[in-house]
């Protein structure tokens, strides 16, 4: 890999030779994943296997069989392999993503396949040293045997089994999602279920919140607001996908969001007025919001997902990093130490993983490893789990980070 292969900020005192040690280092650090959608975590290999098993023809041209092993980004051996993370990436526009989301349930259409994708998702996060995971999913009726309640029971059951049996320790929590492209009645059912599971002694700790997501060009927050309010009254924490698209042409060079580039301004404003516990993406939110809050609402930011869905860069060598440098908010958030949690969003759809997201952020914004470690550590503060679990994990993460940073300094490979 040559230093000038990438425009802009590549130095960071982590030279090209040291960059793969950066990836290895980031792979080892304990991580916190607060923004991942279960069906978006599906391994491409699993999707194809399920399609074959169920005689489903995947109509979308976006699905390509992969020659790689799933999750093989853990197998990076050197600089050239690392280079591969940046190019030959399948472009995924917002529309591409929602075309894909419409196809996945054709293959994940029974309890067995749901169990499989859940277990694989948990393994994949644990393989990247995620120590705390908040997975989110929209409950679905899969078939006559699997209604929305069974769907959630299945996911929760896999989480229980995983925590008890897997040697690496990962604390798993679930956020129940509302799909804004579906009816208010569906949203109401999802809230009822989340509240019922929250009241049940078996799953009370496990279900921690509600999310509003789905195609941002459909539906309206105002319809879902009373249902989310009811969930909040019942003790569930709320995260909203907010300001994901702009009204104006998003592919032009947007450096900052203002009222004119803000996605349906009144909706974004209503979401902010609702004071959710966290915001997802928050790409097109009025500038004044960031500086005017009394309590800064943490943002779940998903670098690769944002580069893809905003189509921030042309499909050229190094485009992920260059794309990220065009992100409408990230640089300012980092400069102002805005509360952030770095997420993968849909690792199966965007061909990413938690290590890669941190690595991209380091590379695009010249962050040194101690900054990225602090960012990860702080993001545990924004978790929806109970305080005792949070404090325990914060202590564990802090200790492990310190040890890793010390041993890394000893080796002198990545600058602290
Ligand atoms: P599921 O809820 O487990 O089925 O995960 C996939 C679903 O998550 C999609 O159908 C969308 O509703 C939602 N989702 C995934 N990625 C995004 C995103 O970037 N924006 C909004 N919604 C999303
Ligand atoms: Zn999302």
Automatic annotation (TrEMBL):
Short name of any one Pfam family annotated for the protein: A_deaminase
Per its record, what are the GO molecular function terms? adenosine deaminase activity; metal ion binding; N6-methyl-AMP deaminase activity
Instruction: Report the residue ranges that make up the Adenosine deaminase domain in this protein.
Output: 30-399
Cofactor names from the entry are: Zn(2+)
User: Which GO biological-process labels does this protein carry?
Assistant: adenosine catabolic process; inosine biosynthetic process; nucleotide metabolic process; purine ribonucleoside monophosphate biosynthetic process; purine ribonucleoside salvage
Pathway(s) served: Purine metabolism; purine nucleoside salvage
Zinc is among the record's keywords: yes
Q: Tell me which UniProt keywords the record has, alphabetically.
A: Hydrolase, Metal-binding, Nucleotide metabolism, Purine salvage, Zinc
Task: Report which reactions are catalysed by this protein.
Answer: N(6)-methyl-AMP + H2O + H(+) = IMP + methylamine
Task: Give the record's family classification.
Answer: Belongs to the metallo-dependent hydrolases superfamily. Adenosine and AMP deaminases family.
What name does UniProt use for this protein? Adenosine deaminase
The protein's organism comes out as Fistulifera solaris
């Amino acid at each position: 890999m040559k230093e000038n292969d990438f425009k802009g900020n590549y130095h960071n005192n982590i030279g090209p030779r040291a960059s793969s040690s950066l990836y290895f280092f980031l792979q080892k650090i304990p991580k916190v994943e607060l923004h991942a959608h279960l069906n978006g975590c599906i391994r491409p290999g699993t999707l194809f296997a399920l399609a074959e098993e169920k005689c489903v023809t995947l109509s979308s041209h976006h699905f390509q069989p992969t020659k790689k092993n799933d999750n093989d980004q853990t197998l990076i051996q050197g600089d050239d392999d690392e280079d591969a993370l940046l190019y030959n990436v399948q472009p995924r526009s917002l529309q591409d993503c929602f075309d894909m989301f419409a196809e996945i349930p054709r293959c994940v259409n029974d309890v067995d396949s749901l169990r499989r994708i859940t277990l694989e998702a948990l393994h994949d996060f644990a393989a990247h040293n995620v120590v705390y995971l908040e997975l989110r999913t929209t409950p679905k009726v899969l078939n006559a045997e699997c209604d929305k309640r069974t769907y959630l029971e299945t996911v929760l059951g896999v989480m229980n089994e995983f925590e008890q049996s897997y040697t690496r320790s990962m604390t798993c929590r679930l956020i129940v999602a509302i799909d804004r492209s579906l009816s208010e009645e569906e949203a109401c059912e999802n809230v009822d279920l989340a509240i019922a599971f929250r009241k049940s002694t078996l799953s009370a700790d496990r279900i921690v919140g509600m999310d509003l997501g789905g195609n941002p060009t459909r539906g309206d927050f105002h319809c879902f607001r009373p249902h989310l309010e009811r969930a909040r009254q019942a003790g569930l924490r709320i995260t909203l996908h907010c300001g994901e698209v702009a009204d104006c042409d998003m592919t032009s060079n947007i450096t900052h969001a203002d009222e004119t580039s803000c996605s349906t301004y009144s909706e974004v404003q209503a979401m902010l007025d609702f004071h959710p516990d966290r915001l997802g993406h928050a790409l097109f939110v009025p500038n004044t919001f960031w500086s005017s809050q009394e309590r800064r609402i943490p943002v779940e930011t998903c670098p690769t997902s944002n580069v893809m869905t905003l189509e921030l860069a042309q499909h050229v060598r190094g485009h992920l990093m260059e794309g990220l440098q065009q992100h409408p908010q990230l640089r300012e958030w980092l400069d102002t130490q805005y509360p952030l949690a770095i997420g993968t969003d849909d690792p199966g759809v965007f061909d990413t993983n938690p290590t890669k997201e941190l690595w991209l952020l380091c590379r695009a914004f010249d962050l040194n490893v101690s900054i990225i470690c602090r960012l990860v550590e702080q993001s545990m503060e924004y978790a929806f789990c109970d305080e005792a679990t949070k404090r325990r994990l914060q202590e564990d993460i802090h200790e492990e980070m310190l040890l890793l940073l010390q041993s890394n300094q000893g080796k002198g490979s990545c600058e602290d």
